[in-house]
Amino acid sequence: MRKIIIGVMGPGTGASETDWENAYTIGTLIAQEGWVLLTGGRNVGVMDAANRGAKSANGLTVGILPDAGDSGVSDAVHIAIFTDMGSARNNINVLSSDGVIACGMGAGTASEVALALKANKPIVLLTQDRESQRFFQHLSHHHIWIATSPKDAIAFLKQALTRRGKTP
Amino acid sequence: MRKIIIGVMGPGTGASETDWENAYTIGTLIAQEGWVLLTGGRNVGVMDAANRGAKSANGLTVGILPDAGDSGVSDAVHIAIFTDMGSARNNINVLSSDGVIACGMGAGTASEVALALKANKPIVLLTQDRESQRFFQHLSHHHIWIATSPKDAIAFLKQALTRRGKTP
Amino acid sequence: MRKIIIGVMGPGTGASETDWENAYTIGTLIAQEGWVLLTGGRNVGVMDAANRGAKSANGLTVGILPDAGDSGVSDAVHIAIFTDMGSARNNINVLSSDGVIACGMGAGTASEVALALKANKPIVLLTQDRESQRFFQHLSHHHIWIATSPKDAIAFLKQALTRRGKTP
Amino acid sequence: MRKIIIGVMGPGTGASETDWENAYTIGTLIAQEGWVLLTGGRNVGVMDAANRGAKSANGLTVGILPDAGDSGVSDAVHIAIFTDMGSARNNINVLSSDGVIACGMGAGTASEVALALKANKPIVLLTQDRESQRFFQHLSHHHIWIATSPKDAIAFLKQALTRRGKTP
Q: What PANTHER family has UniProt attached to this entry (chains A, B, C, D) (predicted)?
């Protein structure tokens, strides 16, 4: 009955065009799997792109907002959870996700990947950035997967969910 | 596109039989309106009853859990948000709801009604408890409605949402 | 080695003159006991008055702020803890206090008294408001004390701390 | 009147002997500057060592605990703030610190350094770990300083505080 939730994290205003396109495609693929998409919910960057992708494929989207109120929410979020907790909500993003995909990198995204490691979640990095890949693999070899494409990211998560007994 | 979310708050293990039945009916009615049900997500008392009611009417249910992990979640929750924040998550329950129904009363529920007042949300009290009615009406006449039945509670919220420009 | 911490809660801008005077006196008395004063830290109402009282008696003061940044902090706060969590920080106020005094009443204060009940903390209400007295005593007879003066409030807390094995 | 607060972050059970010794020395130096030490407050690793160091030099120590209750707190913490928020409290650690020293590295520490970058705080890394140094300098050149010793870390923070108009 409980739905599988996949968290997609990544830069807001600092997202590159590649990050944006990858996030859109990942949103689409998550919806096609029948999974729920979870993001930070704002109307910028990777969050917005992933929500738009999921919406285009008739997926269900949850946004965990840093603010208390209605402004700045992605139009493609169905269920908006307002935390009024700023970056402390990053831990909720991670704990509520059965798996996490980091699409691009930035300070906020780095905190989410680190918290996901601490929470023992399956994590996929979809970034060409070598320092990020090295750093997080160095922190933990077990739960990090370096993906080369959105499809690759989804395939890894499917395996990880199966290993953990969650029928994807 | 964003869905209307109604929060149903109330005692867990301390819920009376009347609280349980009211919560179940309220969950059903919320689902029939096409609204999303939001609760504290645990598998006891008012939270569990409201989720079961909404599920029986094919509604969508969101649970905002106080814990980090999978145990203790109502079977009738579709989307589980894990906060690991204990009672501090009560503020998230309230901020994320377009309207709040308190079904019964207890210390946790009282904190949620008080936080909902502070957040300027439409609130319905569905309880026969006179001290609760007097205290919260005394705190604020504007946003509190004393309901005599689940139907009455839903009717009030419909009006309140309309007044705020949210087409219910 | 750990210091005894007493939380003083009450209205901000809505505080009455009596609330302000009571809070100032309570701050003074807490400092004279060698306890640390904890408040919501803002530069208004009961929070500000209690901090000024404690400072006047050379006490140590901790403010748990709802915001992320430096503005709006009481000048009489020594240690400012910035939560950026809005009203969710009310639960931290309560959990970090060995005992809680509510000086006056409002929506935020009501949430703190309710959360203190849930956390099983000794609580003193210093308010003439009958609805508040009745409601919270109705919620729990065990942990609530209705005080008639700041001295009375401190005397009750001393007894409660002793009963719990915390040498005040 | 407000005290300068320096946060010292680092591994708990995973701390190396060098991390422990560095943290103890840093705690001592912070106390000697008249600054308040802030840590995650637990009785293990870098948190415990820094608190013991500060205590040995008659400093004042604040612990921001992840739990709700009394167990697991470092004996050398004067003021214990109980958040019951798990790793979400990492953001409070960072926001409440005028400067942050990371002593060693781990998933929790990485999240704190990333959140400190996002909050625009002066940060010192005291670790020999090259991947950490490269990754965080890559994320932001502006606010990160790589220290080679506890004394070096304190000297950098003094300059950073002065630049920001906080008389250290």
A: CYTOKININ RIBOSIDE 5'-MONOPHOSPHATE PHOSPHORIBOHYDROLASE, LYSINE DECARBOXYLASE-LIKE PROTEIN
Q: Is B105 on the interface with C (CB under 8 A)?
A: yes
Q: Is residue B14 within 8 angstroms of chain C, CB to CB?
A: no
Q: In what order do the strands lie in the sheet with B144-146?
A: B79-82, B61-65, B36-39, B5-9, B99-103, B123-126, B144-146
User: Is B85 close to D87, i.e. CB distance below 8 A?
Assistant: no
Whether complex ipTM tops 0.85: yes
Best residue in A90, A113, A140 for a mutation probing chain D (most D CBs within 10 Å): A90
CA of D88 to nearest chain B CA: how many angstroms apart? 8
Q: Do the Cβ atoms of D5 and C92 come within 8 Å? A: no
On the 0-12 / 13-18 / 19+ scale of CB atoms within 10 A, D142 is exposed
Topology (CATH) of A8-162:
Rossmann fold (3.40.50)
Could you say which of B105, B115, B134 has the minimum Cβ distance to residue C87? B115
User: Going residue by residue through chain C (168 aa), what tens digit of pLDDT does each one get?
Assistant: 799 999 999 999 999 999 999 999 999 999 999 999 999 999 999 999 999 999 999 999 999 999 998 889 999 999 999 999 999 999 999 999 999 999 999 999 999 999 999 999 999 999 999 999 999 999 987 789 999 999 999 999 999 999 998 876
Longest dimension (CA), chain C: 40
Residue D103 Cα distances to A109, C93, C101, D72, angstroms: 22, 29, 39, 20
Q: Where are the domains of chain C?
A: 5-160
| Extended beta strands in C10-149, E state | 36-39, 61-65, 79-82, 99-103, 123-126, 144-146
The answer to whether B87 contacts C118, with C-beta atoms less than 8 Å apart, is: yes
Count other C-beta atoms under 10 Å from residue C71's C-beta: 9
CATH for C5-160?
Answer: 3.40.50.450
> Look-up: residue for tokens 């003074």?
C28
Find the closest chain B residue to D86 by CA distance.
B84
Best mutation target, C84, C113, C115, to test chain B (most B CBs within 10 A): C115
- From A64's Cα to the closest Cα of chain B, the distance in A is 9
For the segment(s) B5-161, the CATH number from 2.170.190.11, 3.30.70.360, 3.30.360.10, 3.40.50.450 is 3.40.50.450
| CB proximity C81 to A under 8 Å | no
Q: Name the nearest CA neighbour of D64 among D29, D31, D97.
A: D97
